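Format notes (please read before filing issues)

Several people have asked whether sequences and C-alpha cells are stored in separate files. They are not. Every record keeps both together, in the order shown below: the sequence lines, then the C-alpha cell lines. Line labels are part of the format and must not be stripped during preprocessing.
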Amino acid sequence: MEKAKTREISIRGERYRLWVGYQSQVELRMEFNRMTNEFWGFDFERYYQSGFWDENCIIYSLFDGDRIVSHTTLSILESKVKGDTLQIGQLGTVMTDPAYQRRGLARFLMEEIQRDYCSELQGFFLFANDSVLDFYPKFGFAAVQEYQASRTIGHECSALEVKRVDLDDILQRELFAYYVKNSTPHPFFDIRSFGLTFFYCYVYPDLGFKTSVYYIEALEAMVVAQIEDKVLTLVEVFQLADRDIEEIIQAVAPKEVDTVVFGYTPSSSTMRYTVHKEEDLTLFVSADLKALFEENRLMIPLLAHT
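Then the structure lines:
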C-alpha cells in the first residue's frame, strides 16, 4: 500500500491538514473511525484488520489539529464496458463535521480527488442523499436512473450440488477469493471490486451477504444469492467460464421461487427492466459516463456500492 500523503492547506483563510491514504497510522485511523461511527453507525476498523482494505480504497480527510472535520473516500473499480476495460472512481463516505459545514471543505476534497485522478480514471460516480441533490451538479455530475433486471422462471430438475460457503474457513475463503479475482466479466457492463466484495460478503455480516455465498463446483461458479418469499436475488455471480446463467438459476432456486431479480446488469435481452432506486439515494455520474447510463439500462452492482 502506498505511503500516506499529507500537507498543510488553506481554505477561505482557515488552515487545515490534508491526509490521504493514512489508514496504517493508528491515531488518525481511530479518529476517522470515530467520525464514521457518528455519521453512519459503523467504522472501518474490522475492514482494516481483515487485510482486505487494499490500495484501491483511498481515504481523503481534512483535519483541524487532531480532529477530523471532513472526509471523502475514493474507491477505484475496474469496469468492463462492451469489452473495453475502464478504471472508474466511486466517491463515498462523504461527511463533514456539523461545526465545519458551509466552509467549502467538501468542495475542496471533491476537487482535489478529481485533480489527482483525472488522467488515470475514465469517470466517477457516487450515490447522493436526496437532501443534497443540488450539490454535485456543481462538479459536473448528473443524476441518472438505474434499471434492475428481473424475470419469471420455470423449474427444471437440477441434480447439481450447491454448497453454502463458510467464509470463516480459510480454505473456503481462499477459494472464494480465487473466484472473485479470476471470474469471467459480464459481457456488456461489469464493475468489480475485490475489496468491496469481501467488505460485504465477509468482514461485515450485518451489512451484507456472509451467509449468502454458494459454490456450484460442476459449473465452476460462486454465487451470492438471497431468497425471500418467492424471489431469488442473484446479487453476483463469479464464474471461471462464461456459462448459461439459466443453469445457475435452476441449481440455486428452490421450487417455490418464481422470480429472479439481478443485483447487477445481466447480458440477456429477455429480462424485464424496472427503474431501481434505493431509498433516499440518487446515482450521479460524471460527464464521461452520462451517455453510457442514459443510452443503456444499467445498474451499479450491489457489491460495488460505497
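For reference, the curators noted about this record: The mean pLDDT is 94. DSSP finds seven helices and 16 strands in the chain.
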